[in-house]
Every structure is written in C-alpha cells, then in structure tokens.
Amino acid sequence: QVQLVESGGGLVQAGGSLRLSCAASGRIFNPNNMGWYRQAPGKQRELVATITYYARTNYADSVKDRFSISRDNAKNTVYLQMNSLKPEDTAVYYCNTKSPNVPTYDYWGQGTQVTVSS
User: Fold this and answer.
1) Among positive and negative, which fits the CA dihedral 88, 89, 91, 96?
2) Residue 80: beta bridge partners?
3) CA 104, CA 81: separation in Å to the nearest integer?
4) Which of 45, 77, 80, 118 is the most buried (most CB within 10 A)?
5) Mean pLDDT per 10-residue section of the chain, whose length is 118 residues
6) Distance in angstroms (rounded) separating the CA atoms of residues 23 and 17
7) Other C-beta atoms within 10 Å of 89: how many?
8) Radius of gyration of the chain (CA)
C-alpha cells in the first residue's frame, strides 16, 4: 500500500499563488508517475498536471503557463505551484501516483481544498 498526504491548500484571492505538496510513503514502486487532479462541486474529476519519474510533464490547457508541477524523487514528493489563480480554479485537489508498468499501482490522496475568491 502507498499513502499520499497532500498539504498546502487554502483560501487565496484571485491573482494569488499557492503551492501544494504531496508526500508518498509505504511500498513505493519506481519508476512511477505522479499527478494532480481536481474536482469542483457538481463536476467530474479532471486532470491538472502529471509528471513522470524522469520529469516529463503534461498540463491541462486551462492551467498551462500558470501552474508548474515538479517532483523530488529522493523525498517521494510532488509539488504543484499555482500562480495567477482564478475563481474557476476552486476545487478539491487530489494527488495521484501510478506505475506505467504495474496497473494495480494506482493510489490517491485524500484531497486538499483550494478556494479562490474574486
């Protein structure tokens, strides 16, 4: 089992910044991909950004040029730097890790609330 613990969410005004962190522990399998997803009230969970073990990144069009994902493999931690936040970024943000080689290696964090006020 792998545990993912997110931190860094909160309330911020539009135009502000937040940095989310997600630390993995337990039976970690490398290489793995890590990512951030979000779910707003009444909407489906959507991809925000992902990063491979070797730091290849992918972003949703809605966050490109505003958000930046990074990871520290030595600390088994992934980060999401969010700048120029908009009210539509308000959601619960979830951390995920999965392995490209082991289909059952797919874990989620409990989520952290991000609220952007206008």
Assistant:
1) positive
2) 20, 69
3) 28
4) 80
5) 96 98 95 97 97 97 97 97 98 96 94 97
6) 20
7) 22
8) 14
